[in-house]
Q: What sequence folds into this?
């Protein structure tokens, strides 16, 4: 099975980090194909960047449409997830979506910790219909870059936030942010509740969805586009819209 | 005051229709500037088209940043609204958002009628936090093109839907879809409840916001981007991301 | 256009304060008519006072019915708003409603700061269907009278509360309480997020509603009363109930 | 124990009907004192009438303050309930509130049937925080007066509505409207689910509250008013506001 | 009237405590029958214990079916409440349910204080559909046993928690936990808001329900079981399932 | 990997049906162990049966604790799911929970079709926090036994219900009821949206959870019981409660 791990920013190092985490989590027989968009934000840290990244991501996916068995959006905002799900002929999963749904399976309510502001995560989880399972959000006073530059400080901040979230009712904690991909194994031993890595959860959920082999809906807003004209965009993406 | 009426699809006729409706609604001294994106869907009728249109719309807005006093998104999906609001130095209003908030001011709960599927409207209204004010949704078995080709049939369908929505608890009805811009005056006389045209509401709300002169927030997810690197995009948009 | 600025308590100084704020916010051609009820609470600070004030306010409005183009309820509890909306032949807007809906147009979630207890504001915002947009409430340890007696202390308290609300996720802050009318310009320069004055927002929203010219609904609970007998009340109000 | 059964409209026949239903439901040792307001609507059938009735009802209650052990609001809109609860030195219960809470004790979700429009009942139940227990609302095409003039037709309409509500998930049905007081025994034998009469439920809940002897809160928005000046109103009501 | 006070754990001392509180609260003519399950947890302090206790409780109730007029579940988790309500031919009330609904009648929002963790109470209140009336939860750092061993310390903790809940918006406070049964009179004098004892509230609500004499529903998920085969259980319980 | 497929009723045929569906869905290397409780309902079709089944199920699980890698609750009510999750040292998944979460990954909102009444499913989905993703419920006028006796009629009913749910906004449909296990492949070809079989989804989600290897929480209401005394129950279950 071939799973596309699609970053939504243009930083190859993040793509590589996510791909490594995906490979570490994947089952035997699962091949991980990393991919980085042609254009868009270096890092997505705001609403507006996320919109441009959405287009870049759909273009990236379109290039791989029909050549992969599943797509993992390696971006913690689950950028353009619903659109990708409609557009692609294979299952698509967002990394934060994956972690949150896995947290539900672990039981109770979950927390989420991420770099910087948390409002857009609160909104995204509400859009996933999971507000009732969310116990708390914690924003680290650090950037994704700090995780590379000073991993010890970031780890300390993470442990503090995880502990507080657990004490305030989180039965598990989602590590939000592609820059944290692969950190769960290191952090878990000292954490009082399970930690959820969106990349690991996402790869495993995709393996499950591919195995289930659900058809695409023929009705509703997730049915594949057919005969839609979209101009001035990449030919592969335009072809998907036409349904040809 | 200069208000940009920004279509999010590439159909000039829709832009013109919305601009005409905007001019008809605008107060004295308000200048309407219509604009159409350089690329993207001919008509937005699905989740995926809406994502591409989001990028096209931000590019279009960036070109006009600093040259207009307010922006009306002339697209019933309120495409990229929050991003545009973050990005632009002036107020931005979405046409469906405008109609829904005006419906709140008219009192009670509102319904929405549109062409085709209604799920994405249900979601959008939920994202606006207004689900509690939504009494019902009605999807016409017709396309925006039908409104041009067979306006009488569409008017009959609209009247039926409006009547049913009112009977089931809608105190007002939002006409959803840019293709319905300007139709309210024709439909209103036979409707039992007020009809809300997003273009008319949006222009008037923008006049109001421009008059209030609220500053942009310095904190939070609507603060203007600063120093953000976004590659492979239109220079005007890239400049807005850099904050220069 | 003539806008009635109707206080719901009997303190003329508050009426005058609100009228001044309304005039400062109004567009050219808008005439502000201040009005104070004949009976009722000197200041509304509890549930029971608000009920008596509701009757007093409807009486006050009835006296002006047909003589004004719009009504702004200059009372932060949006006292009797839905009833006034049903009863009057012109648009009616509540000052807190106005500020909250304008906050929605500014983007994200809003906070509200007021004198004393906040529970009734929490309830009122829930009745407006806007709980999902409310990020936080702050009650100042001060009375409306303190705002007159010691404005510097109240300003300090306000700044502290606004800063905390913004830090905890409010993208804008509503100044709740008629006694704060007109204070936004003084407080805004030091505030990290936009401040919303219900009087200013309300006047502008009324100008917009008057311009739109929406009809009254013929169906539902906001349709004008017709043939209703209400005894022992002011003749003007009784006449409105009879629909004559 | 003396329970005031306070109508909120001025129709003595309704007061008498409710008083009879209250006496039929009351325990031994409970004395029912019927009371009708001095002014206000003959029948409350709209938002605006409900506001005037709120004042009239508070005045009526104030006259009896200290002379009764509990107050039942014999009005299906639970008019001014929270204000009365704050103001009075004894427990106060609304008839629809009473029926809905009793329905909760019967298990599952409840429906409500009433004369005419249902939107204001939907809102009232939401204000009681009970929307999640509400399975459906049914509005009869009849008026309270019809219940007197043509009780057989109204009984047929009621049975039809009760049956539909039960089939659609209501585990019990609230009879909404003071004009239905005392009808439950006649309707119950043919109904598939329990029927709840707000007067009967309310009297019994008041007996329970009086027996419990809960103190009034010293904090918050239900604490008794103290030192509040309210002018131009009945001396008994003004005295309650002053707390003297 | 005979009311079964059914403990769900096997600790006779708790049964006795609850029975004493029930007798203290009961009206004249109400007989309290205490009962303790044959098997199950000594104390219920987790999700899994609650499930076993549910079965033990239904068995206990079945033995008394037809011999009592009402059942009070003397267990703060409202264990198996809905099932007992379906199964028994008489009214059944849970002690926390009873306290929460009585809190609603006292007005505004309530808090709940209990021993240890609060998450399962948050969930139970949500299942009762009362989340919107819940202002806060407080978990004491103490066990039910501490209430016996060191009542003064527990009283101090309780007072602190009650004060904080009231300051943060609770208009009343539910004492959650059977081990607190009967403590309200001692704690109330120093509390700023009414305290609700589930046993006292439950007994009085049962008296009210018995007086109302609501029939069991013939439709829906609370209709009595009929012809259901359940093997390997107590004969009395099996007989109830068969409906014989 | 060994997965226990635990029925919660005592009908071996249902256990066998679910085990077959589980084997058909399982990945290579996954061993399916079917198990049936020692006591309890023949079929669970009411609230009270579900409580007894909860105890029977925990006993069944306890016997297998430590001998299996994951547990699938093969009962559509997700009976005792949270308790089992707390109690067992391995992941536990409920079949309806599994189908609903997988439906979320398929996108949009889901419907659920089952035999008979739907209220308890509505409640269960609310407890899972997924009400916002639920588009509709359909109850077939048929029993699980009919699915065996007259599969063609049941298939016709199912197709009708699935079609209606899809037309009313369900992007996928959960087949609720263990008696429908394994039917999805037969029904899918004629269905307009994906059909979700809880057994298939559950097995695959368990494989994923086992692969992830999340630790049990050390804090909160899902932490394993320790030192809990539960009397009169199966020794294996008692031992789990003691944590020994």
A:
């Amino acid at each position: 099975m071939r799973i596309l791990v699609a970053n939504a920013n243009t930083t190859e190092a993040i793509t590589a980090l996510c791909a490594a985490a995906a490979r570490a989590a994947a089952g035997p027989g699962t091949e991980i194909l990393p991919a980085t968009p042609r254009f868009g934000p270096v890092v997505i840290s705001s609403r507006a960047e996320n919109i441009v990244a959405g287009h870049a991501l759909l273009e990236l996916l379109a290039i791989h449409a029909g050549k992969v068995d599943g797509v993992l959006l390696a971006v913690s905002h689950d950028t353009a997830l619903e659109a990708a799900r409609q557009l692609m002929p294979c299952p698509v999963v967002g990394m934060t979506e994956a972690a949150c749904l896995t947290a539900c399976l672990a039981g109770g309510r979950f927390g989420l910790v991420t770099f910087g502001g948390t409002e857009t995560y609160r909104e995204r989880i509400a859009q996933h219909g999971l507000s009732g399972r969310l116990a708390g959000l914690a924003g680290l006073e650090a950037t994704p870059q700090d995780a590379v530059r000073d991993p010890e400080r970031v780890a300390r901040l993470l442990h503090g936030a995880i502990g507080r979230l657990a004490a305030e009712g989180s039965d598990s904690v989602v590590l939000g942010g592609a820059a944290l991909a692969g950190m769960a194994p290191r952090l878990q031993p000292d954490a009082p509740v399970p930690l959820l890595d969106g990349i690991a959860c996402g790869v495993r959920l995709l393996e499950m969805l591919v195995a289930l082999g659900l058809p695409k809906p023929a009705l509703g807003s997730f049915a594949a586009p057919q005969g839609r004209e979209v101009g001035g965009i990449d030919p592969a993406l335009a072809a998907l819209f036409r349904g040809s």
Summary: Chain C has a mean pLDDT of 96. The radius of gyration of chain C is 17 Å. The first strand of chain C starts at residue 2 and ends at 7.
